[in-house]
Design brief:
The complex is a heterodimer of chains A (790) and B (337). Chain A has 790 residues and is of the alpha+beta class. Chain A is 25% helix and 26% strand. Chain B folds into two domains: 97 residues; 225 residues, BirA Bifunctional Protein, domain 2, CATH 3.30.930. In chain B, helix 2 runs antiparallel to helix 4. Classes of the chains: A alpha+beta (790), B alpha+beta (337).
């Protein structure tokens, strides 16, 4: 909402537009009331030193194509020479001349400046150089009226008055401020300024003549008033009104349209004037539109309607307007109009919003009805309309009497709620007394009555957002000022901190970062074919209103996003990307919500499966987690002979290995990619019990090296487990230190060499201890077909 | 005999002096002090002396000579050892600036960095951290937050809907959460007051990506419900956060605004040390209807809530000009931070 200060001053002495400090105070007050001032624009000001001058001669210079030479007379009869880059003026035109020493709004100082050795004694000005608001003006030098005196400030000629335009960003709960009087009422109350509201009355005259109203849809159109006005003469509206409407961003059209717009801006009540001569049957019928019914609106477009739309019809049931949105073309007033039927109505906000949204037709009226219009201001609006139109139509007759049709949808005029001063103080932290309430609330129409600690507060009809005690408490807060409430810090009565899951998630992230893996955050929305490309078939959730089809599927795995990230980095010659993501995946489920859960995915481009195993072992060690590497179950999309399921108890915890080369090809990834995927809801859920101290033996340890030949299809893990068990209590560490395939081991077998460190807690080991361990380990290994080598 | 001892000692000392390596010392030791060495062999001759006095004198001289040679050997060994270490140190010089390659560390995402810094500030103020699902019910995302069916404010969220419907439930009632506020409801429904939580998380809007908007972004939400929580407590908490997160030179203000789920509602702005203002987020006293939806009696408890963008904290801190860069997963971007 744009508020012109000179207009606002109609309703009280708010600020002198020339008093910068007062203007700033006003802006700050509006912001502090919740009417956020987005911009304060000084308009209508003049630039000192710019005077009127007449063009005497024009001449092109052969060496300067982009400028011309101009000689002007600034009223003293002398010719002054200026260079000028515009070519729109002619000899005899009166133009603004910035004389030497003038400081322009953009900060330029006008100095004697030469081009091609010829000085310029000033500058001719374009409208925008003088910060004039009129953006429709032609480009080029501003041409002033030809009869303007010369040598006088250009502002005098243009009738410029310094003014201020505030751009307010209004919140949804303040529909009243879509009219000047709403802003004025709020600000006047806060600043202690006397409020002067228009109080027009209608003087009916002439023969009784009405435009009857058949209010069929009284639920959604709670009130529809019609008033017959004759003696109308269509003409331009008064210059002052045109100026104000222009400043508010509205194009002046004619007295009737302009007055309607002016009343809307002032009182936030849209009105619509129908030409009575073209109004079928001379009356109105307001009903729900029929499915498929059409109307050509004022903007010339044909609109197809549904029963969700409120339709204004004439007395013959022919559509003449979309209720609350826009009038029809057929009953538009024309230059020949002499009698009008004036509509001032109240519509429920939701149907207007839905209609305007579905038709893609947002008008000034619909914008206001959507937010909420005062249902009890129609009579004032009609009176104000008449009062203002009379200025240009002195012969105007308002026929008795206004038809006021109301329906069950009309909100009650008298609404109130109880307000406890204890509750005000409990919520705000203030120490107000009940007697403070009238002072704060009465000026904004929340009239306080009663006595004691619980007061009755009447809720004004222009504040449809307010209906309960908490709404009134907000008004109290706004009018004492949020700053005045003070700042206290509550003493938290709980113990702050991260949950176990959150702490473990941070530890997991630290481990991964320490391993040189960088965190990625790919888009969780996938294209419809992306999961299939990754061999991750299975159901996925779709977005029903995606921005683009390529981002319409919710991921069920973090893998595709990271593969795309690797491909992207490869395309920028960044191979060997090591990336991880901790994020949610959203497979469908069977509950109220999908089976959404948190997951980890690590991808190591250019690495093979053992690198992934190594990273997994670090993670498992850091988090005190364990999982069996089950190579017998290869997860979908992974390399068939280099991948395994991570199995924790009976449940799969994740996957580890390499990406299937076919998947890599489909994602355009050139390197091998090692991968770990883990469900984090399980992994991070519980902190393992703290490790229990074991004494460190003071006795010497001995190492025993054993190399076994083992068939390739028997997991090394099984051999290691067997050796461990065989070695028994004396084993303190076992380390696979060499793997060998080749001559001497046999086809389909490999040699696995372990170093086993043995130690007793209470004694030095003897040779026979070591021999026993060796025998037991070899025997245990033999059960898997492992043969001791050499 | 004494003369022989003296001569042998002098010869041995001279040999020790001539030894020029630790190996030479090792070789010399048995030759000088062993049974068959020059002094050792003299020791064998002691028995052939006839007089006890002679034996005693010669024995003492021999002991002295042996000790002198031992100590000379030890001194020579030490000095040669020191020299050898010095030579080794001199020899193994490295130019430390010519080192190639180094262990590389991974880089946490900028959002994570901002997220954790924010969490830590609020933990310091006594808050716990709550989380919730990103795919939400219409009820949690809107209705419980005082935005019933048809509430005009719903239109401002540019909601993304999904085709998920619970078994037996209706379609069109599941959304990608448009804000972290549903976590308020979930927390109130599962925890008894007092509640002091922040809820950081991923949120979604149907916004075309540009330099300052992404359809997927992150917010942090705060909720306090306790006895006697006031608007002044909200202003004070925002102020405490401002100073802790941005620095002691920063301050904050609340100005009236509107959100369906709080009343009174406010925007909170941060004032930089240079006096300029920055709009940061929204906040307010939890609306009684929202407390009721969370199963909390608004006559017994009161509370406040606030929320703002995490992504914006990240791009502001590092002056990232385009939000899209932060989500490109480009290592050339990630490695800068």
């Amino acid at each position: 909402m744009k508020i012109l200060l000179s207009w606002l001053n109609e309703y009280g002495e708010f600020a002198d537009p020339g008093d910068a400090a007062a203007v700033q105070r006003l802006a700050d007050t509006m912001t502090a009331l919740g009417l956020a001032v987005e911009e304060v624009r000084h308009v209508g000001g003049t630039v000192d030193g710019v005077i009127t001058a007449q063009v005497k001669r024009l001449e092109r210079h052969p060496d300067a194509a982009k400028v011309q030479r101009v000689w002007v007379d600034a009223g003293d009869g002398a010719e002054r020479h200026v260079w000028c880059g515009a070519f729109n003026m002619h000899v005899g035109d009166v133009v603004p001349l910035a004389t030497l020493g003038t400081s322009m709004p953009d900060g330029r100082l006008i100095e004697r400046r030469g081009i091609l050795g010829i000085d310029s004694e000033g500058m001719l000005c374009a409208g925008d150089e003088l910060a004039l608001v009129d953006e429709s003006a032609e480009r080029g030098i501003l041409i002033l009226p030809a009869d303007a005196p010369l040598g006088v400030p250009y502002g005098e000629v243009l009738g410029l008055q310094p003014d201020v335009l505030f751009d307010l960003d209004l919140t949804r709960n303040r529909p009243d401020c879509w009219g000047y009087i709403g802003v004025a009422r709020d600000v006047a109350a806060r600043m202690g300024i006397e409020l002067r509201l228009p109080a027009p009355t209608i003087e009916f005259g002439g023969e009784p003549r009405t435009a009857p109203v058949d209010l069929v849809d009284g639920e959604r159109c709670g009130r529809f008033t019609s008033t017959v006005i004759s003696g109308v003469r269509i003409a331009p509206s008064a210059p002052w009104m045109q100026q104000r409407l222009t400043a508010a961003g509205m194009r002046p059209i004619s007295n009737v349209v302009d007055v309607s717009n002016y009343v809307m801006l002032e009182l936030n009540q849209p009105t619509h004037a129908y030409d009575l001569d073209t109004l079928g049957g001379g009356g109105f019928r307001i009903r729900a539109a029929r499915d498929g019914e059409t109307i050509v609106t004022l903007d010339g477009a044909e609109r197809t309607l549904t029963p969700a739309d409120i339709l204004i019809c004439d007395a013959h049931d022919a559509p003449i307007g979309v209720g609350g949105v826009m009038g029809g073309l057929d009953t538009e007033i024309t230059d020949a109009t002499t009698s009008v039927a004036l509509e001032a109505a109240w519509f429920r906000s939701l149907p207007v919003m839905q209609t305007a949204s579905r038709l893609g037709l947002r008008s000034e009226a619909s914008a206001r009805y959507e937010r909420g219009v005062d249902p009890y201001i129609t009579h004032t609006a009609v009176a104000r309309f008449v009062e203002l139109l009379r200025e240009t139509c002195p012969e105007l007759v308002v026929h008795p009497t206004t038809v006021d049709a109301t329906g069950p949808g009309l909100p009650p005029q008298e609404r109130s709620c109880q307000v406890r001063i204890t509750e005000v103080n409990r919520i705000l932290g203030t120490s107000l007394v009940a007697d403070d309430l009238p002072r704060l609330l009465d000026p904004i129409g929340f009239t306080v009555s009663g006595s004691g600690d619980v007061r009755t507060v009447a809720l004004p009809s222009w504040r449809p957002d307010s209906d309960s005690e908490i709404d009134v408490i907000e008004e109290v807060a706004r009018h004492i000022g949020y700053d005045a409430v003070g700042k206290t810090v509550p003493r938290s009565t709980v113990h702050g901190g991260l949950s176990v899951h959150q702490q473990r998630r941070r530890r997991l992230r630290e481990v991964l970062l320490g391993l040189g893996i960088t965190e990625a955050m790919p888009n969780p929305f996938l294209a419809p074919d992306t999961l299939a490309k990754a061999d991750l078939d299975g159901p996925a959730i779709r977005i029903t209103n995606p921005l683009v089809d390529d981002e319409s599927v919710l991921r069920t795995s973090l893998r595709p996003g990271l593969l795309r990230a690797i491909a992207f980095n490869e395309s920028h010659r960044r191979t060997g990307a090591r990336l991880f993501e901790i994020g949610h995946v959203y497979p469908p489920g069977t509950g109220e919500l999908p089976d959404e859960h948190e997951a980890l995915c690590v991808v190591l481009a250019g690495d093979e499966a053992p690198a992934a195993i190594a990273v997994w072992r670090e993670i498992a060690a850091a988090l005190g987690a364990g999982a069996r590497i089950d190579q017998g179950r290869v997860p979908a999309g992974l390399h068939a002979t280099r991948s395994a399921t991570l199995q924790a108890g009976k449940d799969p915890l994740g996957a580890v290995g390499e990406i299937d080369p076919a998947v890599l090809r489909r994602f355009g990834v050139d390197e091998r990619v090692a991968i770990i995927e883990v469900r984090l809801d399980e992994l991070l859920a519980r902190e393992p019990k703290p490790a229990v101290w074991k004494s460190v033996s003071r006795h010497p340890s001995s190492d025993l090296d054993l190399a076994f030949a083992l068939a390739d299809d028997v997991p090394a893990e099984k051999l290691e487990k067997a050796v461990r068990q065989g070695a028994g209590a004396l084993l303190v560490a076992i380390d696979l230190f060499d793997i060998y395939r080749g001559p001497g081991v046999g086809e389909g077998r490999r040699s696995l060499a372990y170093r086993i460190r043995l130690q007793a807690p209470d004694r030095s080991l003897t040779d026979s201890d070591i021999a026993d361990v060796r025998r037991a380990a070899v025997a245990a290994a033999a059960k898997f077909g492992a043969e001791l080598r050499g | 005999m004494i003369d022989d001892i003296t001569a042998a000692k002098d010869a041995a000392l001279a040999e020790v002096e001539r030894a020029d390596s630790l190996d030479a010392i090792v070789a010399l030791e048995p030759r000088l002090l062993g049974k068959k060495g020059s002094l050792g062999s003299l020791k064998a001759q002691l028995g052939s002396l006839s007089s006890v006095d002679d034996k005693k004198v010669a024995g003492q001289a021999l002991n002295e000579a042996t000790q002198a040679v031992e100590s000379a050997l030890s001194a020579r060994r030490d000095s040669l050892g020191d020299a050898a270490l010095a030579a080794l140190v001199a020899h193994e010089r490295l130019d430390l600036t010519e080192s190639a390659g180094r262990p590389t560390r991974g880089h946490a995402h900028l959002v994570t960095q901002a997220w954790e810094r924010l969490e830590d500030v609020f933990i310091g103020l006594g808050f716990q951290v709550a989380e919730g699902p990103e795919v939400e019910t219409d009820w949690h995302n809107f209705e419980a937050l005082n935005m019933g069916e048809g509430h005009p404010a719903r239109g401002e969220f540019d909601t993304l809907f999904v085709d998920y419907a619970p078994p037996g439930g209706t379609a069109g009632r599941t959304v990608l959460r448009t804000h972290t506020s549903p976590v308020q409801i979930r927390t109130m429904l599962t925890a008894e007051p007092p509640i002091y939580i922040v809820a950081p998380g991923r949120v979604f809007r149907r916004d075309t990506p540009d330099a300052t908007h992404m359809p997927v972004f992150h917010q942090i939400e705060g909720l306090v419900v306790d006895r006697h929580i006031t608007l002044a407590d909200l202003a004070g908490t925002i102020e405490a956060f401002t100073k802790a997160f941005f620095g002691p030179g920063f301050t904050s203000r609340l100005r009236p605004s509107y959100f369906p789920f709080t009343e009174p509602s406010a925007e909170f702005d941060i004032q930089r040390p240079d006096g300029s203002w920055l709009e940061l987020g929204g906040c307010g006293m939890v609306h009684p209807n929202v407390l009721r939806a969370g199963g909390i009696d608004p006559d017994e408890w009161s509370g406040f809530a606030f929320g703002f963008g995490i992504d914006r904290m990240a791009v502001m801190r590092h002056q990232v000009a385009d939000l899209r860069d932060m989500y490109a997963d480009d290592l050339r971007f990630a490695e800068q931070f």
